Amino acid sequence: MGVVVNLDEERNPSPLDRLAKLVEKDLLAANEAIVDRMHSPVSLIPQLAGHIIAAGGKRLRPMLTLATTRMCGYTGDRHILLSACIEFIHTATLLHDDVVDESDLRRGEASANSLWGNKPSVLVGDFLFTRSFSLMVEDGHLDVLRVLSQASATLAEGEVLQLVTANDTETNETAYLEVIKAKTAELFAAAAELGAVVADRPKAEQDALRAYGMNLGIAFQLIDDVLDFSAKEEALGKAVGDDFREGKITLPIILAFARGTDEERDFWRRTMEQLDQKDGDLEYAHKLLANHQALDDTVERARHYGAIAKDAMGIFPDSDIKTALIDTLDFCIERAY
């Protein structure tokens, strides 16, 4: 069978691909650990968990742990299982998210809940959470337990906070940032911070990597908000406009609502709060977002947080991995274009 190779990607690998190459051996070991540790005699568990894990993604969060650990000079192998732990936490939240959001697609493939139903998806998500805590205990270091248990609790709080603000057009930018810090950025922060924790580096370096991960995570989510209105479906991995159809209040909508006329605010209240949506409403939402520069300004906010993340990396000496981490940050922001 012939293999089709994308020559452009071969000649010009993305920053994520370059980062993966720098930690290739560790990443292969982490993937093996992920497959091994999601095993269960209850066959539905590895079947369902394997579906969403195999659906892809770039393993960005576990790669942050692998890369920052090596950047900090660590030469052991504790970070392998801990990166698997990060992936299990992330996958568990995806399973739960898709149930809450009633999503049919995940990374362009049928979501687990659309194939197996909501109950199995929730329960397998719970299994992955408990498996992640088994891996934390296996590592046995209190600082690791502190970072990851705090992250898990904050993620759950973020999910609940999102429910509280869902469909509420009075949500302001500050409140929304609190949601995405908890729901998305916290796991990025923990994944990066672990590098310095495992390498037993000073608190200043732990704090710097946490700041890098937190601000990367904020920027990442803000660009996802933009992509929901501007990406192609095959690139986004879900139907374009899903956030709008579900009444999710994201930063572009918050900005357009704040800058709009009374008539435009009535439109947002009808479509987002009451979910009374008609043919042409998504197109009109696009028009309002464009008129008020809401998407462009959201990208600018993402760049702001990206700049903070870059500044946090200044404490570390130059290296190939440091360069790749900074380039990855830029890549995550510029994917909006």
Textual characterization of the structure:
With 337 residues, the chain is mostly helical. It has one domain (14-334): Orthogonal Bundle (Farnesyl Diphosphate Synthase). It contains 18 helices and two strands. It has helices at 7-11, 15-22, 24-37, 44-54, 60-71, 78-101, 112-116, 118-139, 142-165, 173-198, 203-230, 233-236, 242-246, 251-259, 262-273, 281-291, 294-312, 320-334; strands at residues 105-106, 109-110.
Tally of discrete structural domains:
1
CATH-defined topology: Farnesyl Diphosphate Synthase
Please count the helical segments.
18
Q: Regions with pLDDT < 50 over 5+ consecutive residues?
A: 1-9
* Distance, first to last CA: 35 Å
Strand order of the largest sheet: 1-2
Strand fraction band?
under 5%
Mean pLDDT: 89
Task: List SSEs in N-to-C order.
Answer: HHHHHHEEHHHHHHHHHHHH
Structural classification: mainly alpha
The outline comes out as: globular
Give me the CATH architecture, please.
Answer: Orthogonal Bundle
The value of Rg in angstroms is: 20 Å
In the CATH hierarchy, what is the superfamily?
Farnesyl Diphosphate Synthase
Helix share of residues?
over 70%
Note the main attributes of this structure:
single chain; about 325 residues; mainly alpha; Farnesyl Diphosphate Synthase
Strand and helix map with partners:
Layout: H1 7-11, H2 15-22, H3 24-37, H4 44-54, H5 60-71, H6 78-101, E1 105-106, E2 109-110, H7 112-116, H8 118-139, H9 142-165, H10 173-198, H11 203-230, H12 233-236, H13 242-246, H14 251-259, H15 262-273, H16 281-291, H17 294-312, H18 320-334
Helix pairs in contact: 2-18, 3-6, 4-8, 5-6, 5-10, 6-8, 6-9, 6-10, 8-9, 9-10, 10-11, 11-17, 11-18, 14-17, 17-18
